[in-house]
Amino acid sequence: xxxxxxxxxxxxxxxxxxxxxxxxxxxxxxxxxxxxxxxxxxxxxxxxxxxxxxxxxxxxxxxxxxxxxxxxxxxxxxxxxxxxxxxxxxxxxxxxxxxxxxxxxxxxxxxxxxxxxxxxxxxxxxxxxxxxxxxxxxxxxxxxxxxxxxxxxxxxxxxxxxxxxxxxxxxxxxxxxxxxxxxxxxxxxxxxxxxxxxxxxxxxxxxxxxxxxxxxxxxxxx
Length: 222
Fold this sequence. Notes:
The protein is α/β, with parallel strands linked by helices. It is built from 10 helices and 5 strands. Helix content is about 50%, strand content about 10%. The protein is elongated.
């Protein structure tokens, strides 16, 4: 990309207020041209195919096709597009999965527009930018001693499409922990925990924590 040409980007986030806010914030910066916006991974791929941007700013958790799946397909189908993840999730599992899929940089939604624009430009230039807390999370995960080798049976997948992380959080809810205690236990932000719990309620058909605890007990999630 020529240095005198604006950076052409696509923004993908399933929350309309976040997506529209990013379009306005980044579109108002000199040298940034927002050429498309998408509400899910499939729309993001279509926008990239249509507009051929330099980079895409991508949320992880979206409907139809999530950010990890979209990243894999972008790398395969549009390898010249730099991928920057912007999400609420900063646990080591999400970070590793995104980077393994091909994301070049990883930011949380606490980042301001200058930090996001800097990460986008760096990614287009082949550099990696990580949110400082994400970097600390990765360092902590890689420095932890490996668990002793033990022969164990494969853990069955949780019911109703719950992820292992959601099942873990559901078990903590059943154990009587509140959101703040869960966040502290799992080294997650309170917002991330709340997002997980909303997804747990949706997948299990639970209207509240009491119903979720009953579901956990019925399915032996502990």
